Structure formats: structure tokens, C-alpha cells
Amino acid sequence: MLRLEPRPEPSRRMLALTPFAAVLLTMLAGGFLFASLGTNPLDAIRVFFWDPLFDSTVASYTRPQLLVKAAPLIIIALGLSFGFRAGIWNIGAEGQFIMGAIVGGSAGLAVYPAEGVWVFPMMVAAGALGGLLWAMIPAILKIRFNANEILVSLMLVYVAFNILAGLVTGRLRDPDGFNWPESRNFQAYPSAHNAELFAGTGVHVGVIVMAVLVLLCHLVLRNHIFGFHVRLAGQSRQAARFAGINPHVLTALCLGLSGAFAGLAGLFELAGPAGKLSTNFPLGYGFTAIIVAFLGRLHPIGILLAGLLMALTYIGGELAQFMLNVPAAAVQVFQGMLLFFLLAVDFLVNYRIRVRLRPPEDTGAAPGTETRGDTVNGPGPGKSGEEPA
Known about the structure:
Largest sheet: 3 strands, antiparallel
Number of strands: 3
Strand order of the largest sheet: 1-2-3
Distance between the termini: 12 Å
Strand content: under 5%
Structural class: mainly alpha
Radius of gyration: 25 Å
Helix content: 55-70%
Order of helices and strands: EHHHHHHHHHHHHHHEE
Number of helices: 14
């Protein structure tokens, strides 16, 4: 028989090594996945992790794309990390990403074709506001009715997508776009375009904002009273109440912050790499950012590294589809394995499996006493009939 038992004190060294173990296990399991599809697993792993950085043929293009892909993932994951640390679970960052793009993009289109340096900052502020307001829906329902923020935020993703679909086939449709369901191209609107700051580097305003946010979030979590409240609420809700922390205010702040960050990411993506609103705009960044947040151990520096790694799998996945004919679904499964193995390894760090070789025998002993079964090392004083696996 198997039984789970909490470890008295999980090893800090094991906790630090779990992301690396999860990556290695993902590579191993991914190798079996690609082999089952008829692809050489070593070639697939090389294309995923090596070629985007070092291959002489494609690296000149893919290296700049690493920052382009990583920036939205890192920005969203930074916002999510505050709530996750406090035990507030915003799973709907994808919807906030979409709404930030819709509101910010609509603000830019509302003044088209006006020119001026104020257009893009206005769009950035509107995008952050759109994501924040969308995240306040589950916050208010949580505070007022104790609704589950996981379910509410997740369902709002599909509401946001349908709002997007309605707008790009209606009010926001490009009048010069031959009736295609898409907005005007922001790359053709210089005042609203989030262009590369340095040609060929992939660095745009969103990348600069991402770097600044990593630093700010690190300082807030480490030195600010809000960071202390977040950490304390995550460790003990009762202790947080004794310390005078209002759980409703903390819920609103954490969900609002994560929504604003996701809205920022959506606007930067819309005005930059994506270029236009369409039904293909949702890219799954909001869901992938959850993996990034946990892979980075909810720490800003860890999230930065995890975001770069996940961006590498995005670019490597595109190369694998092109060079090895790997199905897109297999790439998504490979990325999902990373979260699965991270959770599995985390679980084993916090719990151990005890094995009972055989059940206790009924010997007719007096009540209050029991006869214990043999252990792996044989019966003896102090043995419980169980051994940790």
C-alpha cells in the first residue's frame, strides 16, 4: 500500500533544483513523444533548444525574436506572481491580455490618423486600464459574493475572445481591408506603432518596460510593505488578519495589478509584432505565463529566466514545425509537459511516498495495541512497518 506523508521541512536545495529537474524530465519525455511521431528525438531537442541560438542559418533571425516572444510572457507572469504568492489565483490573464489590446487599440484607432508623440503613451495607459478593469470583475465577485476567482477569470477569457470577434467584424474592422475580420494595421500608423528601437535586435518599448518591471517587482516584494503583505498572506491567512491586512483590499490589488500587467502586454504585442486585431490575435500568452510564473518560483529574476526559456520553446517549436514537420499540437504538448513535471517534482519535494509491504495482521491483541507488519529492513524496535520511497 502507498501513502503520502508531508515532509517535516522540504529541502531548500531540492526546491531550488526543481525547475532544472522539470526541464530535464520534459526533454526526456519530449524525446519519447517525438520518437512516437517518427522524428529523431535528438534532432527535435536540438532544434528546440540549440538551433534558435547557435545555428548559423537561422540564429540571426531567431535570436532577436527571443526578446519579442519573452517580453509579454514575463510581463504577464510578473503580475500573476503577486496574486499567486498571496493565494489569489488569476487564471484569466489571457482575457485581460485581449481586453488590454482591444481598449488600447481602440484608443489609437479613435484618433486615427492623428500624429504626435502622445498617441502611443495614451494607448499604453488605455491598455493597462482595460486589463485592470477586466480583472476587477472576478475581484468584485470574489469580494462581494465569495465567487471562485479561478472559474470567473477563466470564463471571462472566452467572453473577451467573443468581444474581440464581434469588434473585428464590426466597429473596428478596417474599412480598407476588403471585408477581412481585422482592424487597421498599427505598423502602418507611425504614431501608434511599437517599432524596434534598434534595428535587428527585437528590442521595442515593451522589452524596456519588461526589464524595468522585473527590477521594480523585485524591490517591491523585497522592501515594500505591499510585498510583505503579499508574502504574509500566502504563508498564513490567519497571521495576515492578525497583522491587520484586509483580505478584500489585497484581493483587489493583486487581481488589478495582474490585469494591468496583462493589458500592458496585450497593447505592446498589438502595436508591435502582431500589428492588428483579428480573431487570430489571442496567442495563448496569458496561459503560458502561468507556467513561466511557477517555473520562475514566483520570483522576478526567476520569471525573467523562465520567460526566456519558454520563449525559446516557442521559437524552437516554430522551427521544429518547419524543419522536422512536427505537428503544432505536439509542440503545445511539449510545452505543457514543462508545467506537469514542475508540479510533479514540487509535489515530491513537499511529500514523500511511504510503502506498506503488507497490512497489519490480526493477532487478537488487546484493544489499544497492534502488531506491525515487517518493514523493508525487517522488524525491530522503533520500526513502523513503512519505509519512504
